[in-house]
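Hello,

Our lab assistant flagged a job as stuck in the queue for most of the afternoon. It eventually completed. Since we weren't sure the result was trustworthy after the delay, we are filing this so someone can double-check. Below is the sequence as submitted and the structure that was eventually returned. Let us know if re-running is recommended.
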Amino acid sequence: MLETFLAMDTALILAFTGAGVLLNITPGSDVAFSMASGISGGPRASVAAALGIMLGGLTHMMLAVLGISAALMAIPHAYDAIRYIGAAYLFLLAVKTWRAPSELAKARGATRLVSALKRGFLTNLLNPKVALFILAFLPQFTRPEAGPIWQQILILGLIFNTSGLIINSTYGIAAGYAGHRIIRMGGTLNKITSIVFGGLAARLIWE
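-- returned structure --
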């Protein structure tokens, strides 16, 4: 695993990290639940919610690793197929995200730590859009020459979920102090994220 990490393109990892941070910052269902838990249950509840969300994300990541590994072994040119299908999905997300209203205002949180953890986990795990997103997003930053694709996806997934934990926790803790201001920012962040999705899709098409 360490050998694969060292063989990966540093610029590509930095680009992925930057895109991942921006996408995690954009208010969606995970951010909304963390904020709502922070408002209703306090900082500890928001952190528990963020931890549950991360566990759900890690579960999706492991399923993606297993699925992509199986596809690469069984289907000729599966790597290219996954990348181009992912590009199409990211383009669709760009359009939907540009048009979507912020989800923050309608979110309802959890007040107890265990409840926040469980609800965060289930909210993420049972969301099929998360699985589709991981399958579309992570493989775009892998390169066959750097090592096994599943190891690269695992490394990128850990980076993405760790940043998500930090960002969701921060949102939740801050929500009690500036929740309404963050809600007003949701529409602007949706537009920025839409541009990122569109840019990633375009890069894959022209690469």
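-- support follow-up --
The delay was a queue issue, not a problem with the job. The result is valid. The mean pLDDT is 77. The two ends are 27 Å apart (CA to CA).
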